[in-house]
Write a structure and sequence with these properties.
Layout lengths: L2 H11 L3 E2 L3 E6 L3 E6 L12 E6 L42 H15 L6 H4 L19 H4 L6 H26 L4 H4 L2 H14 L1 E2 L11 E2 L15 E6 L2 E6 L18 H8 L10 E4 L6 H9 L16 E4 L20 H14 L6 H5 L3 H23 L10 H33 L3 E2 L4 E2 L3 E5 L1 H10 L1 H14 L6 H7 L2 H18 L4 H10 L14 H16 L14 H14 E3 L11 E6 L26
Antiparallel strand pairs: 1-4, 2-3, 4-8, 5-6, 7-8, 9-10, 11-12, 13-15, 14-15
Helix pairs in contact: 2-7, 5-7, 9-10, 10-12, 12-13, 14-15, 15-19, 17-18, 17-20, 19-20
């Protein structure tokens, strides 16, 4: 008799129900699973078919070690759980529930044919050679290369350490009672049992409401593999678990369970498989270290509710790709739809904090284009870092086994989601510099808002005041380079310094000139975030020493009545310009055949709302294609 037949015979004999429309079968790819029986060739099942019912009396968990009719917390259990005898009955209230459950499974495996559950346990994967033991804790060194740089790379060590500590403490407790546990309940057995529970168990919340949640193994029901979107219903009645499906059954076709909306990371880590093109897939990411002011602002603005402990900042957030079943998140710019709002808000608050501006809900609900651009740039830093970390290890050859095949699906999907999230942001920033107009599907908008390189402001200064622009150029050429020569700017790597000096001179020009139309608007927008303040002791000393040296050299090339010698040019003004450049100027790859990355700054000139922030759809290019249970 096959393993599947023995399992079915035992299951039904002990009170389980398995529909005559289905059969247990085994294959190398899917392990022991459920398919439509031959009877379906001649009979039509009802619209909703009861596939299986497993009574509580067949389950495995720590409950098997307890006195009859009680759970650990004292809640009455109206269906009897089969009790086991032996050493483990001494350990309830000594080791945690989930650890005791794993030891129960180990004990029943060690009993072999003497175990009541032997027909079930014999159908579980038992050795590392079984491809169904494919969770990352069973990965070889070569297998791990496929998840290097991903969240799972660190999660493997974290989970192994946690489980090892659980096993060590439990064995110590047993040894203290003279049970010689480590010789019997080895680490390999504990790893196996913990993996079986993580990949096959169901939670107790429906069976035992009001009791602290724990995991139970429900034989046979756990043989149904997962398919996202499978139409199934679960029903719990005093701990008895029934699974039904409303999908049409066909002879020979697999019948699926639905574990819920699970990402590939959760599936691989807990169950040992992944789903290509998983509509529920996400990339887990954390906020990282936040400035105290940012933490407080997130609390005050109720983004995190009334909680004040630091653990709330250490939770995982989830990036979603363009094809996520939820459609993405709602943020103030549609190119951010793949990013959780808390991460967007944290980046926004960080941009305000480093610019020494107070948080205000109105800032976030109706943000300026300058803050939106700053937030986008702030978001790209951790996202690209995460992407690059995964790309540092790129397996040369294709996957050689089942573990590597699933790991590749996971890795490729993580990179695809990260591309899906970062490319729209980078594209928006790129388009602002690349074209005088921003293209949308529904309207166009003139270039009153744009990221520009320093040559453009120089041209505007020349148009508004040719004399001051001439003196500016002469001074810069004497002290640094010709600022209108792109190649010299790149070769000398001084474009940021030119920006600082232009801001200072353009600011002085805007104060005194009546026709400083464009530059005055620019500065009105910049000063909403940056005020000129007296310098604090030691503030920016090194930067100011260098800039002052450049100013002195430039001033030496021009008469005393030029703007380089203006008494209004104070150290506070130079420090202000340096802070603006520090936070507002960034290198951006320019379009064209030759690779260039000029330093650009976002400029907004007309004081009107910046409509580009919230278009319904971006006319962005098509995204690049993305390169059974235990």
């Amino acid at each position: 008799m096959s393993r599947c037949d023995k399992l079915r015979e035992w299951f039904i004999a002990e009170g389980g129900h398995l529909s005559p429309c289905v059969q247990l079968t085994e294959s190398p790819a899917n392990g022991i699973h459920v398919r439509g029986a031959p009877i379906l060739e001649t009979e039509n099942p009802p619209a909703e078919t009861l596939i299986c019912t497993c009574p509580l009396s067949l389950t495995l968990s720590y409950l098997n070690t307890l006195p009859s009719n009680t759970t650990r917390d004292g809640a009455q259990n109206r269906n009897l759980v089969r009790q086991v005898s032996g050493d483990l009955t001494l350990l309830h209230d000594v080791i945690p529930n989930h650890v005791l459950s794993r030891f129960v499974l180990i004990e029943q495996r060690l009993l072999g044919p003497d175990s009541f559950w032997e027909p079930y346990i014999s159908c579980l994967p038992l050795t590392e050679e079984d491809d169904r033991l494919s969770t990352p804790l069973y990965f070889s060194v070569e297998d791990k290369r496929w998840v290097q740089g991903t969240n799972i790379s660190d999660a493997i060590d974290t989970r192994r350490t946690l489980w090892m500590e659980e096993w060590t403490v439990a064995c110590m407790e047993m040894d203290n009672r003279g049970l010689n546990a480590s010789q019997k309940y080895t680490w390999d057995f504990y790893l196996w049992a913990a993996t079986i529970f993580s990949s096959r168990a169901f939670t107790s919340s429906s069976s035992f409401p009001g009791v602290e949640t724990f995991a139970l193994l429900y034989p046979v029901i756990d043989c149904l593999n997962h398919r996202s979107g499978a139409k199934v219903s679960w029903n719990f009645d005093d701990g008895n678990f029934s699974l039904s499906t409303t999908e049409p059954l066909q002879a020979g076709k697999e019948i699926w369970n639905n574990y819920g909306a699970k990402s590939n990371e959760e599936l691989l880590m807990g169950y040992g498989f992944c789903i290509p093109n998983n509509p529920c897939d996400e990339v887990a990411i954390k906020l990282g270290r936040l400035m105290p002011q940012v933490r407080e602002n997130l609390r005050v603005t109720h983004v995190l509710g009334s909680k004040t402990n630091s653990e709330q900042f250490d939770v995982s957030l989830y990036l979603r790709g363009a094809d996520h079943y939820s459609g993405g998140y709602s943020n103030f710019a549609s190119c951010l739809r793949g990013i959780p709002p808390l991460m967007v808000r944290a980046s926004f608050e960080t941009c305000l904090a480093v610019r020494r501006k107070d948080s205000d809900d109105s800032n976030f609900t109706n943000p300026s284009g300058r803050l939106v651009v700053a937030t986008m740039r702030q978001l790209l830093i951790p996202l690209r870092k995460k992407q690059d970390y995964i790309l540092e290890t790129n397996p040369i050859f294709g996957p050689k086994n089942t573990k590597q095949k699933h790991a590749k699906v996971y890795r490729d999907s993580q990179l695809a989601i990260l591309r899906s999230v970062t490319e729209p942001i980078a594209w928006v920033l790129q388009e602002q510099m690349a074209s005088p107009k921003l293209r949308f599907l529904d309207y166009t908008i003139i270039d009153t808002s744009q990221a520009i390189a320093v040559l453009r402001p120089i041209a505007v200064l020349r148009r508004e005041d040719p004399v001051i622009c001439h003196d500016f150029l002469v001074g810069i050429r004497a002290a640094l380079v010709d600022p209108e020569d792109r190649q010299q700017l790149e070769d000398e790597d001084c474009e940021d310094v030119v920006w600082i000096l232009w801001l200072c001179i353009a600011y002085l020009h805007a104060r005194q000139a009546q026709d400083a139309y464009v530059i005055r608007f620019w500065f009105q927008d910049i000063k909403r975030l940056f005020n000129i303040k007296p310098l604090e002791d030691g503030e920016m000393d090194e930067t100011l020493d260098y800039i002052n040296g450049v100013i002195q050299t430039a001033a030496g090339a021009l008469p005393d009545d030029t703007i380089w010698h203006s008494s209004a040019w104070t150290p506070a003004l130079t420090a202000w310009a340096a802070r603006v450049v520090q936070f507002e100027v960034w290198p951006m790859r320019a379009p064209g055949p030759e690779p260039r990355s000029p330093f650009v700054m976002y400029m907004h000139m007309d004081g009107k709302p910046e409509k580009w922030i919230q278009p319904e759809k971006w006319a962005k290019p098509d995204a690049e294609p993305a390169g059974g249970n235990a």
